[in-house]
Amino acid sequence: MVNESPKILWDKCLTLIKQNVNEQHYNTWFKPIVFGKYTAATKVLVLQVESTFVYEYLEEHYLDLLSKVLHRVFGAGVKLRYRVLVDKEHKLANEVEAEPTDKALAPQPQSRANQSPSVLDAAQPQPLDPHLDPRLTFNNYIEGDSNKLPRAIGLSIAEHPNNSQFNPMFIYGHSGTGKTHLINAIGAKVKQLYPQKRVLYISARLFQVQYTNAVLKNQLNSFIAFYQTIDVLIVDDIQEWATAVKTQDTFFHIFNHLFRNGKRIILASDRPPVDLKGMNERLLTRFSCGLIAELAQPNVDLCVNILNNLIRRDGLKIPADVIRFIAETANGSVRDLQGVINSLLAYSVVYNCDINMALAERVIKRAVKIDDEPLTIDDIINTVCQHFNVSTSAINSRSRKKDFVTARQVSMYLAQKYTKMPASRIGKLVGGRDHSTVIHSCTKIEQRIKTERSFSDEIESIEVAFKIKK
């Protein structure tokens, strides 16, 4: 060491570092570092980095490795300082004192659950399987009114995971609204942009099983220590912890550690924090301190867009009226949409047949839960005829008599509102009209309901006759 220049010693440090990280991490974080100077009297080593972000990242993720390397090459007691460029054009920089290297060298508890030996005998976390579904990304997470806000914020979090805003992110919504897809997409985007981040997706049920096993094997400390190494922790279906008091207590300590250290926490539930009965109050206050975002059920237009995306993916050909029928029947459930498409694909392949309305109606009965006693077009027409004192043949006729036209349009309006039929199907069953006639009729009735109080009351009385809750 005495006969070698500080620059050569730093090059030796880089060689050791390269043996302990993969090539991509080395080229990203260490290769751009510029040797500044080394003062032997004070044992201060100055390294120049390109930005504050690089300095913070090195301190957060590689302090232990840097400390061991410097101790081996430069000797004990070396102090590290960073020269951080703040203005590249004018070569202006600030010097920042690094964490004391001796602190990183202090004995640390080790666990085989999350650590493995390195070339320097430095304990490094093992590569972590994030347990993310590679099919659930932002590329196929279709945006609509029901998910616009959670999607935008989720993408922002994924692009800037070190930003403490909106932490934790708490996403809630009914089954089938796309919660699991969104939280997977966030995790996948983080791994894409920051491959070195330790990202983990886990269901609340599996977390509870792991916790129970750790207690039985007397490994609770290792269990907690492992979760404290995570950079982005994603937990799905946390409502399942409602009665698991000890699991909640353990997660509370993990949550606090991650939160204090600026790590990302993303939670999903089928209900908002205020409705999580049986959950520890101190845990609920932490769930609510970041962002609470609701995923509402997708409307018909969004369901159509989701279906079109699935259809393109699977190379299917489905008529527009069939797509609309499926979207209106799926009860706002993305999961049901997927199930219907999978079933249609199977039928079309096995039976070598086209996907048409008849096949869709057959499949939908098996794939989607429909009311036990759904309204039929005949029920609606009969009740409308009784109300307006006209015959069913009059509604199905081509007569333009005012009473007949009103009864006909009301029948079409109620059929679209309360059945799972597309407009083209309704038109065929009401006098053989086309879908444009049905749409025109529904628009006329909607306008009259908004502007004519007496007419609105008439429609309501018909609905009451069906015992339909508006």
Note the topology.
Layout: H1 6-18, H2 23-30, E1 34-39, E2 44-49, H3 52-61, H4 63-74, E3 79-87, E4 92-97, H5 101-105, E5 115-116, E6 124-125, H6 148-159, E7 169-172, H7 179-193, E8 199-203, H8 204-216, H9 220-227, E9 232-236, H10 245-260, E10 264-269, H11 281-287, E11 291-294, H12 300-314, H13 320-329, H14 334-350, H15 357-367, H16 377-388, H17 392-396, H18 402-418, H19 423-429, H20 435-451, H21 453-465
Parallel strand pairs: 2-3, 7-10, 7-11, 8-9, 9-10
Antiparallel strand pairs: 1-2, 3-4, 5-6
Helix pairs in contact: 1-4, 6-7, 8-9, 12-13, 12-14, 14-15, 16-18, 18-20, 19-20, 20-21
Task: Provide structural commentary.
It is a single chain. It is elongated, with a radius of gyration of 32 Å. The protein has helices spanning 6-18, 23-30, 52-61, 63-74, 101-105, 148-159, 179-193, 204-216, 220-227, 245-260, 281-287, 300-314, 320-329, 334-350, 357-367, 377-388, 392-396, 402-418, 423-429, 435-451, 453-465, and strands at 34-39, 44-49, 79-87, 92-97, 115-116, 124-125, 169-172, 199-203, 232-236, 264-269, 291-294. A 5-stranded parallel β-sheet has the order 8-9-10-7-11, with helices on both faces. Strand 9 (232-236), helix 10 and strand 10 (264-269) form a beta-alpha-beta unit. By secondary structure, it is of the alpha/beta class. The protein has 21 helices and 11 strands. Helix 16 runs antiparallel to helix 18 (402-418) and helix 19 (423-429) crosses helix 20 (435-451). 52% of the residues lie in helices and 12% in strands.
